[in-house]
Every structure is written in structure tokens, then in C-alpha cells.
Automatic annotation (TrEMBL):
InterPro entries: Aldolase_TIM (IPR013785), NADH_flavin_oxidoreductase (IPR051799), OxRdtase_FMN_N (IPR001155). Residues 7-338 form the NADH:flavin oxidoreductase/NADH oxidase N-terminal domain. Coiled coil: none annotated. It holds the Pfam family Oxidored_FMN. Gene3D superfamilies: Aldolase class I. This is NADH:flavin oxidoreductase. PANTHER family: BINDING OXIDOREDUCTASE, PUTATIVE (AFU_ORTHOLOGUE AFUA_2G08260)-RELATED (PTHR43656:SF2). Keywords: Flavoprotein, Oxidoreductase. It comes from the Bacteria.
Length: 412
């Protein structure tokens, strides 16, 4: 049977996505400087719900306010923001949309300007000198701290369910804490959480088990997982496939496939082969390997631009959900156009300034899209002709002010 974009998808837990289009997580940084929920998040996710997307995954919500990935991350440790969370969930679930909260701990990818210390499976610093100066050398977690982090993942998931979110996603990709545990490059422990590949995946399986225990069997639990780290001595595709098989055996509802870290940002399209670009999605070949081993629903994100490319990926069976990110920033209603049968092609294109050092920095494009998200959250249309360099300067200034404000809050 041919699978089409408008076809519903039933998940293992029994929940059903209304179509095959998913908004992948993007870091909004739209919380307050003391990491609380704002009305901007409500407006932003209402726009995507009304735009026709079947599944929206939030930007990373942190499980511990002592470990922040960016200024103005939302942190969910308790019920203090329950009314605001409920408003966010109601808006994001309009129009029959599923809204899943992505929950995360940055591990050593926690900037020094925001965090007094950083923790990781092992005390392994960044090797890239351009990144190293912005991050503390991490401290290796104790077993008791690991157990507390597992509990925190479960607590955040339970609070998300209470607030009305219809699912959760574990962030196990892009070099954050779960990803660090999986990678032999970053995890050099010699106890039950390190050494063998089996031990290195113990943390993610314990996190999944605790979340499932807290939310029940009929609530969607998913993961964003690296196909590989694309770093020497890092997490490999074969190891990733073993993690997929272990999670599938436990009953996970959906696996979103991505890849890369801060040091090797393949999730942004860097280093992709021309044959990969022709198929549009960056990780389809890996998804085909996953499909040959397990039946768990898959979402592939990164590179999709045309209705034709999305339809081909579904028809080939390589993925069950088309993951979109930047196309839904440029046009929050892009999904409606696709579902209406338009021969739609996203206008996403590389942002260039003409300054090589700036253009080669992933932060420049991140800054550009951060400003567009903020416009949508204020009820304004995206500004497609905004300059790359000016966006970077604006965001750098905003981040500086937020960091200063957050420092004053901590000092007080």
C-alpha cells in the first residue's frame, strides 16, 4: 500500500498521528531569563498547529536548572509553571496536532557563561579549540548523580503529561548527555555505565524505563537518536542500530533519526555527499538499515524541501514521518500546502554573508532562524530577506544581555 503525506499513523502505544508531517525540535530560547514558560511559546506552537503539521516536538526542555544549554531554556523540575504549561499544551494541540515535549540535559555541552560547572560521563573536554574556550572541562558524574538524572527525566515527563502534552521525546542526539553516554569518545567510564557498548547504552535504557514507568503504556515516548557522531572514536552506525533494537524491544513509539555533534554538525547538512542531497534527507540510508531490522515507526529529519522528495521517502518505506524544521520557520503553514496537493518546494537556502569565517560558522544560520522564531512568537510573519550577519550580531547582543541578566539572578 502506498503511504501518502495525509495518511494517519498509529503508534505502538495506540495513539494516532493525523498525518505524516512532523515538526522537529528547534531551540526557541523563548523562556524567561529565569527559565520559565512564556506566552511566546504558546503563540509559536499555535501557529504550527494551525499550519497543518501532525506532530510538533518542542525545543529542548531542561530537566535540571543547574545544567542549561542556552539562555532562556525552559526548565521543568516542578509544578510552579503548570498553568502556563497547560496553555502551551492547549495551543500546540489545536487542530488535532500532537505536541510532544523534548526533554534534555546538555552534559558537557553546557556553556561556561551559563553554568558554574558541567558534568558528563567522563572528564573529557572538547577537542576543538574554537569550542573549548566556551565550555568548562566537565566533571565525571557519580553513580548517585546518574541515578538522580534518571529520576529527573521521569519527573519531567510526568509533569509534561500532567500539563497536557500528548507525548515526550528523549533528546539522545547531537552530543548532549544521553549521546555522550553512548559514545566511546566521551564515555570512558569503567563501571556499569561504560566500557562495553552494552554498558554505554545502560543510561538511555534506564531513562526510557523510568519515563515509561511514570507516564504509562498508552502515552507516546520517543527518542531523537544519532545515526553516528561522525567523529573519530565516536558512536558508530552499528552501535546506533544496537540501541534502536534495544529500544524497539522495550516498546518505544517513534525514533527520530539525526546525527552529529557540536564538533561535527552533520544535522545542519555539513559534509553531506551529493548523492545524499539528491535524495534530500540527510539520513535516509541509515533509516533503510534500521527498517531492515525493526518495525518501530521512524521519523527522518534534515534536508527535506520538496513534496516530491517527501513522497518518495514515504513510498520507499525508509521513513514513516517526514521531519521538518527550517521549512516550517519560513512558512508555518507549509504543511497545509503540502497536504492540499500543491507541488510545494520550501524556500530554505543557505544564509550567506560573503565573509568565509562567518559563513562557515553554524552559529550564523542558527542566529538567523532564532530571530525568525521570535517573530512568529510575536505574531509577525518571518522575514525571509533578513541579513545573515546582522542576525548574528543581533542574537549575539541578545544572548549577552540574557547571560548578564541570568548572572544577576544567580547572584541574588
Amino acid at each position: 500500500m502506498t503511504v501518502t503525506l495525509d495518511q494517519p499513523l498509529e503508534l505502538p502505544c495506540g495513539a494516532t498521528l493525523k498525518n505524516r508531517l512532523g515538526k522537529s525540535a528547534m531551540s526557541e530560547t523563548l523562556g524567561t531569563t529565569d527559565n520559565r514558560v512564556t506566552a511566546k511559546l504558546t503563540r509559536l506552537y499555535r501557529a504550527w498547529a494551525r499550519g497543518g503539521t501532525g506532530l510538533s516536538v518542542t525545543g529542548n526542555v531542561m530537566i535540571d536548572r543547574r545544567a542549561l544549554g542556552e539562555p532562556c531554556n525552559v526548565v521543568l523540575e516542578d509544578r510552579r509553571d503548570m498553568d502556563r504549561l497547560k496553555a502551551w499544551a492547549r495551543a500546540g494541540r489545536e487542530n488535532g496536532t500532537h505536541l510532544w515535549m523534548q526533554i534534555n540535559h546538555p552534559g558537557k555541552q553546557a556553556p561556561a557563561a551559563l553554568n558554574r560547572e558541567t558534568v558528563s560521563p567522563s572528564a573529557v573536554p572538547f577537542s576543538d579549540p574554537n569550542l573549548k574556550r566556551f565550555f568548562h572541562v566537565p566533571r565525571a558524574l557519580t553513580v548517585a548523580e546518574i541515578e538522580d538524572l534518571v529520576r529527573r527525566f521521569g519527573e519531567t515527563a510526568a509533569l509534561a503529561k500532567e500539563a497536557g502534552f500528548s507525548g515526550v521525546q528523549i533528546h539522545g542526539a547531537h552530543g548532549y548527555l544521553v549521546s555522550q553516554f553512548l559514545s566511546p569518545r566521551h564515555n570512558r567510564r569503567e563501571d556499569a555505565y561504560g566500557g562495553s557498548a552494552e554498558n554505554r547504552r545502560r543510561f538511555v535504557l534506564e531513562v526510557y524505563d523510568e519515563i515509561r514507568r511514570r507516564v504509562g503504556d498508552d502515552f507516546p515516548v520517543s527518542i531523537k537518536l544519532n545515526s553516528a557522531d561522525f567523529q573519530k572514536g565516536g558512536f558508530t552506525e552499528e552501535e546506533s542500530l544496537a540501541v534502536v533494537e534495544a529500544l524497539d524491544a522495550r516498546g518505544i513509539d517513534l525514533i527520530e533519526i539525526s546525527g552529529g555533534t557540536y564538533e561535527a554538525p552533520r544535522m545542519a547538512g555539513q559534509g553531506q555527499r551529493e548523492s545524499t542531497r539528491r535524495r534530500e534527507a540527510y539520513f535516509l540510508s541509515y533509516a533503510e538499515q534500521v527498517r531492515s531490522r525493526v518495525k518501530v515507526p521512524l521519523m527522518v529529519t534534515g534536508g527535506f524541501r520538496s513534496r516530491e522528495g517527501m513522497a518518495a521517502a514515504l513510498e520507499d518505506g525508509a521513513t514513516d514521518v517526514i521531519g521538518l524544521a527550517r521549512p516550517l520557520v519560513l512558512d508555518p503553514a507549509f504543511s497545509n500546502r503540502l497536504l492540499a496537493g500543491e507541488d510545494a518546494v520550501s524556500a530554505v537556502a543557505p544564509i550567506r554573508t560573503g565573509i568565509r569565517a562567518v559563513d562557515n560558522a553554524a552559529m550564523m544560520e542558527v542566529s538567523w532562524y532564532t530571530l525568525q522564531l521570535a517573530r512568529i512568537a510575536r505574531g509577525k510573519a518571518p522575514l525571509a530577506d533578513a541579513g545573515g550577519l546582522s542576525s548574528l550580531v543581533k542574537v549575539a547582543g541578545l544572548i549577552g544581555w540574557r547571560r548578564l541578566r541570568m548572572g544577576r539572578l544567580r547572584a541574588g
